[in-house]
Design a protein that fits this description.
Layout: E1 7-11, E2 15-21, E3 27-31, E4 34-38, E5 42-48, E6 53-56, H1 59-62, E7 64-65, E8 68-69, E9 73-78, E10 93-96, E11 105-109, E12 112-113, E13 121-126, E14 128-129, E15 134-140, H2 143-149, E16 154-157, E17 178-182, E18 186-190, E19 195-197, E20 206-207, E21 209-211, E22 215-221, E23 226-230, E24 233-235, E25 241-243, E26 252-253, E27 255-256, E28 261-267, E29 271-274, E30 286-289, E31 294-298, E32 304-305, E33 311-315, E34 321-323, E35 325-327, E36 332-337, E37 343-347, E38 350-352, E39 359-362, H3 368-374, H4 379-391, E40 400-403, H5 411-416, E41 453-456, E42 460-465, E43 471-475, E44 478-481, E45 487-488, E46 491-495, E47 500-507, E48 510-511, E49 515-524, E50 530-541, H6 554-570, H7 575-591, E51 602-604, E52 609-621, H8 624-707, H9 709-742, H10 746-754, H11 758-767, H12 775-779, H13 785-793, H14 799-812
Antiparallel strand pairs: 1-4, 2-3, 2-5, 2-7, 3-10, 5-6, 8-12, 9-11, 9-13, 14-18, 15-17, 15-19, 15-20, 16-18, 21-24, 22-23, 22-25, 22-26, 27-32, 28-31, 28-33, 28-34, 29-30, 33-40, 35-38, 36-37, 36-39, 41-44, 42-43, 42-45, 42-48, 46-47, 49-50, 50-52, 51-52
Helix pairs in contact: 6-7, 8-9, 9-13, 10-11, 13-14
């Protein structure tokens, strides 16, 4: 229904509507269930809380639901009626507005439901249920009503039962006073009239802070005081306190310290510690701390540190915790005492944790000249010291204080001191990983962080001088750590050839062994010829090391003294004599005469320097013509010497060549003899084989005889007879052969010798006798001559050789044709 139009408006039970009379402006309330006919002048309206005006609205939107509070709820009624203590409500039907107590509020506990008079406002709230870590912040807005209605408050304590009227002392019920209701005391609460519950971010119930061990929180009061609470605890703020938050966190971790960590504290208010707390400074009983006093708390005094209101942290930059510096073995750090100004050297190995109240680690800045002398060629060290000089790290330090109770903390503080609490757990747990966890490791890069460190090489030495003038010589190999007031003695050495002091070389390192100094000495001989002599001295520093640095330019001392000695000696020699024996002459002058033992050398008492060897590297004669003549003469001598050497080499070569030829012939003869021995051995081996066969056959025959003894006995006579006949035949053949072979002439033996059958010829010469028969008889004849010989050696190794002899003999013709 549109506003201003007449018609019927039906209100169900539990609803109401406000109607404004267009003629009088009076606003009436109609409570259902009810049916109302709207006149043309009646306008449905609603009451706006913010503007406190009655705004026209369509009829269907003007109907409002009556505020209803169930059990456990309550209604805050604003602008109650004057009568019935404000609890008068519209009845069913249409009712005119009545007098209201504007600006007053009352709390009505449920269950209850009622309509509102024009101008009234109702807000239905749930009763406030509290856990043990929750609380309510309430405010007394009418102390008279609060005292009167305090007994009407609904208070359910944490234990079973109700608590009426005596939750607060009447002296606390003052208008505007803030009070706390803790969940540890009350589990359910509905405030009486005169008291309201303040909301925060749309919530009436607020969370307290639950602290575990090693946790704490900070509460800031309206008067600026801070309160630190350590866990385990449930922390409820006072009505005027708020929790200090950092990035949304209200719980912070205590600082865990070990012996290598510390916190620099300034006491900003007087306080006293008793009992266990007094152990902060290692004192027993009671300890008083005065404002302005400074403390350095390390893990030695207190393993776990909880900040407190009387403490503020002194920081350098963003650093809150002071960590120890690792000083490895062989290194050191300079520590400045801020009270006396002295700088001490602390050597490693050590974990160095300076007390910031009196100590500070400083770095020693070396200028470019010093770096080049102490660390020659080290560009990295040069750049680093230049950077230190620009930064000027030895400038005064600015201390500033950070209060732990401040709302602002640096990122470093958050990480190391005020880290937020870990997520809560149902119970404490001990977790053990199933995988291997690598041990924590750190990388130490202390190359330029500590004291000045010098590595003295072998055969070198330095002299260290401090501000008081004390000196000490250090020989290498050794690593030296300089105190803050110590420096190195600088030597200035002559340079060039010949050596002069026009351009001096500065160095702090003295080479004590195998030191080489070269120089050119211009000398004049007896015949007025100038010669430039290039010398190389080998020098050692011996005796007492305290004398080594007594002469700043030992090169000048050495070269000048040697020049005078060499010039004086050369002046007594002609150029030819000096050119021939310059090396021996100079070595005798400088090192002494060479005897059976080692040369004495030359020592310098001024600084313990000793020349133990000298080399003559070059001689350069000033007169070119003289030099050419000496060179030409030397060439001639060398040429003649080379010719002699050549002839000697040729003679030696000839001797060697002939000796090799003789050895070759000797070896050839030995080879031929060896061949003959091999041939004779082959013949002997063949005879031995035949003999072995006969022996084997004889043994077999014996065996057969033993088996067939009877048969052998019967046949023995037959075998004996055969043997006798054969023996006679053999004797006849041998006799015939002896007669035939005796007829052979000595020329046959010579021919056989010519055919290298020396052995066989010797045999024939011994067995053949002189025969007078002719060649035909010798070659033929039954069982005579060569035929008989062949018959004799048939089947043996001599058969082939005899046949070859007969063949050669036949080629010769008659015996008269054989040459002697």
């Amino acid at each position: 229904m549109e506003p201003g139009r007449s018609g019927d408006l039906v209100l169900p039970q539990g609803t109401y509507v406000l109607l404004q009379d267009g003629a009088s402006g009076q606003v009436e309330v109609v409570t259902g269930p009810h049916k109302v006919s709207l006149a043309d002048t009646d306008k449905p309206v609603v009451y706006e809380k913010e503007s406190r005006r009655f705004a026209p609205t369509p009829a269907d939107r003007a109907i409002r639901v009556c505020p209803a509070a169930d059990e456990g709820q309550y209604i805050i009624l604003t602008n109650p009626t004057v009568d019935e203590a404000g609890k008068s409500h519209p009845k069913k039907g249409k009712q005119s507005a009545i007098s209201l107590t504007n600006g007053r509020k009352i709390n009505i506990q449920g269950p209850d439901v009622f309509a509102l008079f024009p101008g009234q406002i109702a807000e239905v709230l749930d009763g406030h249920q509290l856990k043990s870590n929750e609380y309510l912040l309430i405010r007394v807005y009418n102390e008279k009503e609060a005292r009167t209605n305090l007994k009407n408050a609904v208070v359910k304590t944490a234990e079973a039962g109700d608590k009426k009227g005596n939750l607060f002392d009447e002296r606390e019920l003052r208008t505007g006073n803030l009070l706390i209701i803790k969940g540890t005391d009350v589990s359910f609460y509905i405030p009486p009239t005169g008291i309201e519950v303040l909301e925060e971010n749309g919530n009436y119930v607020r969370n307290a802070v639950t602290l575990e061990r090693l946790e704490y929180c900070i509460l800031l009061d309206q008067n600026g005081d801070k309160r630190y609470v350590k866990g385990p605890d449930v922390v409820f703020p006072k009505p005027t306190e708020t929790f200090v938050e950092h990035k949304g966190q209200r719980v912070f971790r205590a600082v865990e310290l070990n012996e290598n960590m510390g916190i620099y504290i300034k006491v900003i208010a007087d306080y006293e510690e008793k009992g266990e707390g007094s152990k902060l400074l290692g004192k027993g009983g009671s300890t008083k701390f005065i404002a302005g006093e400074e403390l350095f708390i390390t893990g030695k005094e207190q393993k776990i540190y909880f900040p407190r209101a009387e403490h503020a942290v002194i920081k350098y930059g963003d650093e809150t915790i002071h960590y120890a510096t690792a000083v490895p073995i062989g290194e050191g750090r300079y520590i400045l005492d801020k009270t006396t100004g002295s700088v001490n050297l602390i050597k490693g190995p050590k974990m160095l944790l300076p007390d910031p109240r009196t100590q500070v680690i400083v770095k020693r800045v070396l200028n470019d000249k010093t770096v080049n002398l102490w660390f020659p060629g080290n560009t990295e060290a040069l750049k680093y010291n230049q950077l230190l000089e620009k930064e000027n790290e030895l400038s005064p330090e600015l201390d500033y204080i950070e209060d732990y109770s401040s709302r602002k903390f640096s990122a470093r503080t958050k990480q190391t001191v005020l880290a937020s609490a870990a997520a809560s757990m149902m119970a404490d747990e001990l977790t053990r990983k199933t995988n291997y966890t690598k041990p924590r490791s750190i990388k130490l890069d202390t190359k330029y962080e500590g004291a000045v460190l010098l590595n003295i090489w072998p055969n070198y030495a330095v002299q260290i001088v401090n501000k008081t003038g004390d000196r000490r010589v250090v020989e290498g190999p050794k690593v030296v750590m300089l105190a803050y007031d110590e420096t190195l003695e600088v030597l200035e050495l002559s340079t060039g050839k010949p050596k002069n002091d026009n351009k001096l070389k500065q160095t702090v390192y003295l080479q004590t062994k195998n030191n080489i100094v070269s120089d050119i000495i211009t000398v004049e001989t007896k015949d007025l010829i100038n010669v430039d002599v290039l010398l190389s001295y080998k020098v050692n520093f011996e005796e007492e090391s305290t004398n080594w640095f007594n002469v700043s330019d030992y090169v000048k001392l050495l070269t000048q003294h040697m020049r005078s000695l060499v010039r004086n000696a050369v002046k007594k020699q002609t150029i030819e004599e000096f050119n021939e024996k310059a090396t021996d002459l100079i070595r005798d002058i400088i090192l002494g005469k060479s005897g059976e033992g080692k040369r004495k050398g030359r020592s310098f008492e001024e600084n313990g320097m000793t020349i133990y060897d000298v080399e003559v590297l070059n001689l350069e004669i000033g007169d070119e013509e003289i030099a050419e003549m000496l060179v030409e003469n030397q060439h001639n001598i060398v040429e003649q010497n080379l010719k002699i050497v050549g002839l000697e080499k040729n003679l030696e070569f000839s001797k060697k060549e002939e000796e090799f030829n003789r050895q070759q012939l000797d070896e050839t003869i030995k080879t031929n003899e060896k061949k003959k021995e091999v041939k004779l051995q082959e013949v002997n081996n063949a005879n031995e084989i035949e003999t072995t066969k006969l022996a084997a056959e004889s043994e077999s025959q014996v065996t057969l005889d033993n088996i067939t003894a009877a048969r052998l006995a019967r046949e023995q006579s037959i075998e004996d007879l055969k043997t006798k006949v054969e023996k006679e035949r053999s004797e006849i053949r041998v006799a015939a052969l002896e007669r035939e072979w005796a007829a052979l002439q000595p020329r046959l033996i010579e021919a056989l010798i010519g055919q290298n059958d020396l052995k066989l010829s010797e045999i024939l010469a011994k067995n053949l006798k002189e025969q007078k028969s002719g060649l035909g008889d010798l070659l033929g004849g039954k069982n005579g001559g060569f035929e008989g010989l062949l018959e004799t050696v048939k089947g043996t190794n001599l058969e082939s050789r005899v046949k070859r002899i007969i063949s050669e003999y036949s080629k010769l013709g008659s015996p008269s044709t054989i040459k002697k």
